[in-house]
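Hi team,

Filling in the usual template for the complex we talked about on Friday. All components are listed, including any nucleic acid strands or ligand strings, so the model treats them as one assembly.

SUBMITTER: L.P.
PURPOSE: interface mapping
COMPONENTS: two
RESIDUES: 224
SEQUENCES:
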Amino acid sequence: NAGVTQTPKFQVLKTGQSMTLQCAQDMNHEYMSWYRQDPGMGLRLIHYSVGAGITDQGEVPNGYNVSRSTTEDFPLRLLSAAPSQTSVYFCASSWGTGNQPQHFGDGTRLSIL
Amino acid sequence: TQLLEQSPQFLSIQEGENLTVYCNSSSVFSSLQWYRQEPGEGPVLLVTVVTGGEVKKLKRLTFQFGDARKDSSLHITAAQPGDTGLYLCAGTQGGSEKLVFGKGMKLTVNP
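RESULT (copied from the run log):
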């Protein structure tokens, strides 16, 4: 089983550029979420979705957009990249909601110059 | 303000030693999860605790949920180099759909 697949694994952007981080899961999970991980900060929730067509904000949503058109895919869009968005981004999925075991991808390492 | 405070943040010990890591909050959680993360990978679930006072064991790891469901601990007996990693606690509150994480405890076990 592929589980949760994130692409790309690494990306370097210039300030002001836009890009989309892809996340796909093959477990038919309803709940999907995006976190960013910075040194000494743990994981902080950006956006989450409880099912296709439904998204909501987490702790740090500013500068990011999401959509959920299918159960399998949950892309994260950076509208105008800023150096403060340099981070490692993790996508996760689960049955039910946040109180269920989360299955994480291997992350996307993003650098904004 | 961090909802879940983990301590210590860093720990470097010798193989065979015991250790305890704490996850504390002033808020009540409906459940707490513990994850371990290795460099270059995503976190992997170790255990979920849902009942106040609950104790769960996973080989040399013992997890406890506080009676008031505001805190949790992870105790590792006879640590091994393979235990090295970042240990994260995470929880949900009430009917919230959001899972929030602590900052983590970076453990290094030296041979």
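MY TAKE: The CA atoms of residues 23 and 97 of chain A lie 17 Å apart. The longest strand of chain A covers residues 43-51.

Thanks, L.
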